[in-house]
């Protein structure tokens, strides 16, 4: 018995991707789809009058799932053609139907049509997971809709926002990806039965020049395989532009997930929020106290990999020599499957993290209080003007006091004494208590709570209403 640890195994299979996505890209799924396509072809040819019998169709259907991989491998080694090796193995277990398997078709009838069906199911898995992430984030945003926190521009302290409002930024990115995915998913088409260069010449010959039957063949096969139709025209393959469009969706998802993971890593550094940390989890082999954001880091790592794969289908789509070239085959086997497996892993991690994010309100309040005197200076300025002060002179006084308070904080490690400075300056005519009254954080969050409510109601809830409650696999190997 061979030792699986003695040969390379993709981490996407062993550590990251879900069982559902691994099943989808398995040999059983791919070659099972080939056989189902052969059944659909034979059955439709029979319906349209070709010399195919119900007995032959029934025999094919009865042996869809019993694939003899050893027989396939032996035959492929002999003839160097994977599709014909599978035709041969199918014929071995279907002797009555052997002569009509793959009738009129070229290899891309099974390879390309199966690929489209796999893309369709892969997008379905990802869509359900994206909705689960949105549900987690919606719950989080609603809970923290009004909790003020320091905003950041250029990663420098800026006007306060709320923890929930920040979560809507992550959600809005993912919602755009969801919309893109639904758009592409709704426009998937089969290649159909097009022949060697897309002319359908072989089928036109089989049907004695009957164009309507040739067109009906495609319509019925697409319907039997669960899609609305076929591409209106093609070469030997379906347009490789489709692969590029699909990978663009996955790349967009990766960008959104990376943004979330990176933000959470920054917030964990500032101790304002953390990803889940399990009771017996070890953060570092050397530093036992560490609580590293390893799941968020993994989201970013895998997302970067997905984004790097976006170039492959773009180059393939742009270099389709006339009716087709085979230099896309090996590349597509890698880039399409690995992009889906990685995207699946990213979303599993995204679900896991958003299902247990920890917020530290006291740290958030402390950091906000530290910088709020600076952020409140415009309000203080306006209040002092109401009391009879000169706006330009007061602006200069605030600038001077702010620079000095900031210098002491950075150079001497002292706490912010800006309010004490302003209270001691007679130009403002305000006591420390009066100045404190301007420092309620909720005075500076604008419409954040209302924006959260409106976003959830107007943009997110319609998605939940449309999708319903679908369970997803999201186990994470920590």
Structure in words:
The protein is mostly helical and 478 residues long. 63% of the residues lie in helices and 4% in strands. It has 20 helices and 4 strands. The strands form 2 sheets. A two-stranded antiparallel sheet has the order 1-2. The two termini are 30 Å apart.
Looking at this protein, list some descriptive labels.
single chain; 478 residues; two-stranded antiparallel ribbon; two-stranded antiparallel sheet; 20 helices
Biggest β-sheet: count, sense, barrel? Answer: 2 strands, antiparallel
How large a portion of the residues is in β-strands, by DSSP E?
A: under 5%
SSE pattern: HHHHHHHEEHHHHEHHHEHHHHHH
Structural class label = mainly alpha
Write down the overall geometry.
elongated
The helicity comes to 55-70%
Average residue-wise pLDDT = 91
Q: Gap between N and C termini, in Å?
A: 30 Å
Q: What does the radius of gyration come to?
A: 31 Å
Side-by-side strand order of the widest sheet:
1-2
Low-confidence stretches: none
- Report the count of strand segments: 4
- Counting DSSP H or I runs of 4 or more residues, the number of helices is 20
